[in-house]
Write a structure and sequence with these properties.
Layout: E1 21-24, H1 54-66, E2 71-75, E3 78-82, E4 95-99, E5 102-107, E6 116-121, H2 145-156, E7 159-164, H3 175-190, E8 198-203, H4 205-213, E9 221-225, E10 245-249, H5 254-269, E11 274-278, H6 288-292, H7 298-311, H8 329-336, H9 339-342, H10 346-357, H11 367-375
Parallel strand pairs: 1-11, 6-7, 6-8, 8-9, 9-10, 10-11
Antiparallel strand pairs: 2-3, 4-5, 5-7
Helix pairs in contact: 3-4, 7-8
Biased composition (Polar residues): 15-34
Region (Disordered): 1-45
Biased composition (Pro residues): 1-12
Length: 379
């Protein structure tokens, strides 16, 4: 369950830069009218089954072939190619360990020295293993497509990436925030990264978490994804200085969008630079799944798409009627007799269905714009 910030007013924030809110980068093929909001609580990002025997092997052996596949970025009204999600798969040098009692996975860029640190906070029921594909270094990694695309993009831009597991199912906003600060600092010192700019990115519960982390340590920028952030309140004093803040959200979640607008105005009023990116719903096409999930072939993607059409899971324009959590697509594939073939990709497919529905999911659709913005704030 996402953590909702207190309603108490926040103390003033200060920043030398003039406030500037920018709206850009919608990620759908069209602006469609908003549908009624689902229940007020935001859905959790779903838990993953790490014991699935075939998915890690399939990802590992098909990585080389998938790297050549083109993937399309939906931006405003046009689908355009961008770097293949498959290109992120040769992330074969992560390290898995424990830092300050927290399970962590990290990787440093191989081509050149790191220019900055990216700390990633996952959502509820998620884990660091989502952000790396299976490899000899991390055989238990899952490699969800949106998550891996972010990690791979960061490494190509020479960010050292650190993902840490929350103590519970979701992040807490008290002692765990100070603990993460200590983890980042000790890890940076051990890996020769002291003095580099630090950026934090979090989704859902992780978004609330990094919004609080930004109040506790010096960050070059913070990216809050599918969350409105938590500012002030009993869990931590509001800082005198707050970093440039990017909100990436899905406006179909109208309640969260309204809360985000409130917090955005509060930050700008106090001199904080704010940028907002909206990720809209995408039509499910015959090859969307194969384009975005390395190793899932186009023939299987088309078969899944046909089932969705036949079962009425999509409307006449191809848009999902419900997200992947609520749609009984697994039962439909069992009925058609090819669930066994699909099951290794179940979590990967569900993530992309959630992304297509455009209500609450990790997204890499704005990687280029997000990292361009981050790099402008590295000092």
């Amino acid at each position: 369950m996402p953590l909702v910030p207190p309603n108490s007013p926040s103390p003033p924030l200060q920043r030398n830069k003039q406030p500037a809110k920018q709206m850009s980068g919608t990620s759908a093929a069209s602006n469609r009218p908003s549908k009624p909001s689902p229940p007020l609580h935001a859905p959790r990002r779903s838990a993953l089954n790490l014991t699935t025997p075939l998915a890690p092997l399939a990802l590992l052996f098909l990585a080389a072939a998938a790297a050549a596949a083109a993937v399309f970025l939906y931006s405003q009204t046009t689908a355009r190619p961008y770097e293949s999600i498959g290109e992120a798969l040769p992330l074969s040098t992560p390290k898995v360990g424990t830092i300050g009692g927290a399970r962590a996975i990290w990787e440093l860029p191989a081509a050149a020295p790191a220019r900055a640190v990216l700390f990633i906070a996952h959502g509820c029921s998620c884990r660091p293993e989502n952000f790396w594909p299976p490899s000899p270094r991390c055989p238990g990694c899952v490699g969800l497509p949106e998550d891996v695309a972010i990690t791979g993009h960061a490494l190509r831009r020479r960010f050292a990436v650190l993902a840490v597991a929350s103590a519970g199912d979701c992040w807490s906003l008290g002692k765990e925030v100070n603990g993460a600060k200590q983890v980042i600092q000790s890890w940076a010192a051990k890996n020769g990264l002291e003095g580099l700019p630090v950026v934090a990115l979090g989704a859902s519960s992780g978004g609330y978490f990094v919004s609080r982390l930004a109040a506790k340590m010096r960050l070059a920028a913070v990216v809050i994804m599918i969350a409105e952030g938590a500012f002030g309140g009993a869990a931590g004093a509001t800082p005198a200085v707050y970093p440039p803040t990017m909100f990436i959200h899905m406006p179909k979640d109208r309640r969260r969008a309204a809360l985000l607008e409130r917090n955005s105005k509060m930050l700008m009023k106090n001199g904080v630079e704010v940028k907002e990116l909206q990720s809209l719903e995408l039509p499910l096409t015959p090859t969307l799944l194969s384009e975005r999930i390395p190793g899932l072939d186009s023939e299987l993607s088309e078969r899944i798409w046909k089932v969705f059409r036949e079962e009425g899971f999509v409307d006449d324009k191809g848009y999902m009627r419900e997200d992947g959590r609520a749609t009984p697509w697994k039962d439909a594939l069992v009925k058609r007799g090819f669930w066994k073939e699909v099951s290794p990709w179940a979590d990967h497919i569900k993530e992309e269905l959630n992304l297509a529905y455009g209500y609450h999911e990790m997204t890499s659709l704005h990687n280029d714009e997000m990292f361009d913005w981050i790099e402008k704030h590295l000092k």
